[in-house]
Design a protein that fits this description.
Strand content: 25-35%
Helix content: 10-25%
Oligomer: single chain
Number of domains: 2
Length: about 650
Amino acid sequence: MSGGASRPRRGQRGQVLILFALCAVLLFGMAALAIDGSFGLVQNRRAQNAADFAAFAGAQQLGGTTICNGPGAAPSLAQMVSVVQDVINANAPAVGSSWTGTFLDAEGRPIPGSGFTAASGGGGTYPPPGACGLSVDASPSWNTFFAGILGYKTLTGSATAQVSNTTKGSDVSIVALNKVGPHTVLGGGSGSFVVEGDMYLNTLVSNQPWTEAGTGWAYDDAVDAKGNSNIHVYGTIHSAQGTHGGLPLWPLDQCFRDVSAQGEGTSAPGDPGGPPSAPLYDPPCSDAGANVTVEYNHIDPSWTPINDPLQSAGAPADPALSSTDIACPGLAMHTYASLAAGETTVSGVTTLLPGEYTSPVQITGTATLGDCSAYPGEPAYPGIYRFDQGLWIDPAAGAQVTATNVVLSFQNPYPVAGNVPGQVVGGTFAATGSGNGAPCLPSSTMSSSTSGAGGVPQAETSAPAAPCGGTSPQEYGVTAFGDSSFVASGLYGTGENYSLLVGGAGSVSLTGPTVGEYASTGGNPGLILYQDPSVQANFGFDGEPGDSATISVTGVVYDASLAGYGSSAPQDYWDGRGGGIPFYAGGTMQSGNGANWSSGGPAESSGSVTVTGTCIVDQFNTDGQTTVTIAGRPFALPGASTPTLIG
């Protein structure tokens, strides 16, 4: 036998090479998956951290600013780019400039057209109105180790994060229905005036002295501030779309016009110094020696004026009318000619009952205005009150007045000296008529130099004698001025004409119903204060001299009683010659008392007024040192057109 080793065949050697190549690819693939994959996970994790931190940092820049929900200065777009880039550089260098930011509103929704990149931010531009948060999309890229052998020299990833603040605004705070008068929202006091929500203004200028033309706009003074007052609107001012002298309307005084020196916005294209296209706009006005600010998130001058939404089809019945059933379910209608034994003043701890009060009612002590459960054995249905001759809530220091789950309705003004004209008979004041909305002041009262356009005009008149008859010490009606700052001959102040006065030195809390026809939706209280629109009267909160009460109102405040608030509405001012403080016999919501007296005036008010709800009025004024806050709520008002007031 012959022996020897067999030789491998040439074909088998080729198969080994193929198998080796396949194994090598598999091994490199496994290495790429293990090493490059792990490295990729790290890069994506870093990118996600960077996106999270950048979105959070961006939202922090926006929170508390006038763009979103506070009084702070808003960051420019360049500052936002810098913040995002710094955070990304510190946490994920692999991202570099490969990221995109998008601004979010208070609900976390992207704002259309608000995207920006690392290359954005020039030209002094700002984030859009209502920007309360930020979404960041990051795209890291990195070089591979083993995957490059397989043809993948670089790999990319992606990461997304978003953070948004909750805004204080976006709900409706004030609807001013007066269609022709200037200063429909006027800050005249030295206390703060904060509006947390949107304002809607009906004013279309027809004839008034303060409209000025400048930079392609007509500044119609729909919103203004006087003396030491400042207005902060954490929302949008929706003003009427119209023209005056062929120019579109802008709802401010012209002295709030120039933003070029502020570095806080950009003007409309081709309109240097005009209304800004950027949302931050809080220029001070130093006109006539004043130093005031009107600050807001945004102005939308395209509002279409509406009629009174509570007089539209589907609105609830007027609770002040005798034809409206206000009785508690299952009970007869209760009428109170007086509170007890001929008294119309509550001085002790008392609970009032729902029904109609045909005499004036004054509350000076601790009291509760109960709902239907205040009647024995009755469920807690909303309690409806009808004050035919007015209500004066005037608690002493330490006293508390509360009303919950109620509607308070009014007709005629309260007969108190200085509120309406009258006389003292047998030691008792009796009204002889209604006031015209202008105050009554001591004869020595002088208005401020800032309100008097550089002068110090006397704010009152002693002729004819005592048009505010019955006051002690003697007070007189102020001199009235017409549209062109001339003295209106024969027209003198006869009192503010309040059907509701809320003040004193104690605390007052009023809350509307959450069920029934006067309630709102979503658990929000509805109508709380309602003036019969067929009887002219005003509401006064800390509106008497020296008032210092802490007042809280939750619900819809309604007073649209100005007669003919269209083209026939009166336009008179009790502090004219530059002051321009309007007075109306009805439809005015007045917070505070005192207009920066130069000398001789009554004590200014202090205290605070907070309305958590929607104020539907013809006019809104503030005075004195009272702090005023209007925090809008989403109320559903039947019959309302635009806005729906639902939020």
